[in-house]
């Protein structure tokens, strides 16, 4: 693979994930970590990404279309989503975060007697015709690129509700178990969601362990459970378990 092709793939990967570590990018592209570090430095100099310790972040304005993100690691996301849906008992209330894994959770809820609350416009489209589900959509500013609602109205709506379950997405989990996000505008909404739920379940595939992000969403102790897959970094999983978080492999 030519350096230009490899660097374009790095930028595309960051646009999908929001952030990426040197080790994960090296494994994904089949090159050495030293090669990835050189590529990241060059791409940072060109303004195509932001270099951070251990990896890089996508630059502002680089959101991928929702359908493109949804196609990445689709089977892994679906296994995680199916396992998450199995946790819910009929009659309970569920809060679904933005993102493509949350959409896949919604796809596994059809026909069940549940209350679903969301700021995810893709979840709205998925469930709006299912008469078994009581669907509540939070207000807010429409972030079209990622099919989400954000802002003061979203946060204020969340202060008026309380649910049994929150299924939360992330840009990455730090080695110490902190949950991070690389999109600053989404972080206050995620924090408000955590405050509105009895049980907080983080949904994250193995590429998010360990991960990166510019803003802290929550400490590991604020999570009830993490649903992930085999191959997720064992040291990070151990930190979560030490904080009292149940780690479930899909």
TrEMBL record:
It comes from the Bacteria. InterPro entries: Carb_Metab_HTH_regulators, DeoR-like_C, DeoR_HTH, NagB/RpiA_transferase-like, Tscrpt_reg_HTH_DeoR_CS, WH-like_DNA-bd_sf, WH_DNA-bd_sf. Pfam families: DeoRC, HTH_DeoR. Residues 3-58 form the HTH deoR-type domain. One of its GO terms (molecular function) is DNA binding. PROSITE patterns: HTH_DEOR_1, HTH_DEOR_2. Keywords: DNA-binding, Repressor, Transcription, Transcription regulation. Repressor of the lactose catabolism operon. Galactose-6-phosphate is the inducer. This is Lactose phosphotransferase system repressor. The lineage of its organism: Bacteria, Bacillati, Actinomycetota, Actinomycetes, Propionibacteriales.
């Amino acid at each position: 693979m030519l350096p230009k092709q490899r660097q374009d793939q790095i930028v595309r990967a960051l646009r999908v994930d929001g952030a990426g570590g040197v080790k994960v990018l090296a494994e994904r592209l089949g090159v050495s970590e030293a090669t990835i570090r050189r590529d990241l430095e060059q791409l940072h100099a060109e303004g195509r990404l932001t270099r951070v310790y251990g990896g890089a972040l996508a630059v502002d304005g680089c959101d991928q279309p929702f359908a493109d993100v949804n196609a990445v690691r689709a089977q892994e996301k679906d296994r995680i989503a199916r396992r998450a849906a199995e946790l819910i008992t009929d009659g309970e209330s569920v809060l679904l975060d933005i993102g493509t894994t949350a959409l896949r959770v919604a796809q596994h809820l059809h026909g069940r007697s549940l209350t679903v609350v969301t700021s995810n416009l893709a979840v709205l489209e998925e469930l709006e015709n299912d008469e078994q589900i009581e669907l509540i959509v939070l207000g807010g500013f429409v972030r079209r690129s990622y099919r989400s609602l954000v802002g003061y109205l979203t946060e204020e709506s969340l202060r008026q509700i309380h649910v049994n379950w929150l299924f939360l997405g992330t840009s990455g989990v730090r080695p110490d178990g902190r949950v991070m996000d690389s999109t600053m505008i989404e972080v206050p909404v995620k924090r408000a969601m955590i405050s509105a739920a009895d049980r907080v379940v983080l949904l994250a595939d193995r590429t998010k362990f360990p991960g990166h992000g510019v803003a802290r969403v929550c400490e590991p102790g604020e999570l009830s459970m993490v649903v992930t897959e085999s191959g997720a970094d064992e040291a990070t999983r151990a930190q979560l378990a030490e904080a009292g978080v149940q780690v479930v492999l899909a």
